[in-house]
Design brief:
CATH architecture of one domain: Alpha Horseshoe
Number of strands: 0
CATH class of one domain: Mainly Alpha
Structural class: mainly alpha
CATH topology of one domain: Serine Threonine Protein Phosphatase 5, Tetratricopeptide repeat
Helix content: 55-70%
Radius of gyration: 25 Å
Length: 300
Amino acid sequence: MPTNSEYLAKIRSDNRDTRFEAWRTSGGESADNLPELAKLAASSNPSVAKAAREAMTTMTHSVGKPDSEEKQRAVAAQLTAIATSRDYPLDIRAHALRLLSLVGGVESVTPVAKLLADADIREEAIFCLERIPGKESESAMLQAATQVAPEFRPRVLAALGHRRVAGAASLAMREMRSTNKEEAVMAARAFGRIGQRPAGPFAFPANAGLTSWQSVEVMDSQLRYADSQGNAPAAIQIYKTALARSEPHWQCAGIVGLARIGTPETAALIYPLLKSPNRTVRITAGKAWRSIADAQAARV
């Protein structure tokens, strides 16, 4: 389907009802209109710019139907071309990447991955790559993690963690030893989310030198990792660390994790907290204690 000049004229119209009707029906138009829509989205006329942006969005959302695979590929190809072209302003390219994150496939991975070297657009590029399914996008992010600028590496690690890319566990484990606290904390977040038990020893970043928020992030990452390990010594040790913290919410998190394992050993660790001076901790410990007892009774 060729570019629809009448449709584009409606998007440019001075009449708001005409513009509205045009972008609301954009799902029926050809993907070949997207380059022109992207140009109109950069219009100095805010009404036209909004109509064009909405038209791009409507067209992208329309290709999620089971019978629209061919058009989805066409839309993705046009959005990739817009996102990677310097002929468009950065905000339009960013908009294209956001839309591409919804419909992009393997063909978009390599062009988008190249944008990770561009400081002006790399944040939107990694956002997009993180959401494109498949091993190709995971491999591209893994490769990028060792090649991007050092200050951007934490963001790539975050994306790998969100995707739970198992191949990134060793990289995250190594980066947790970084002297750059931000990078070490982001690596801990990724490692905790991935949850893959390494063959060798590892350590989460020490609290010394961390901000209060970074300390929270590291403890949360440890608990996420422990939750994925089941009845493993490393998991039990992390839960014991949480019990030893002064903050009630960490103690409760440790109790819940130990209760999930539900062995006599973990019950013994929970028992002293039945007399905690903190009411919330006492209640959580009591519920955990009863859940373990009920589970043990059911096995008899």
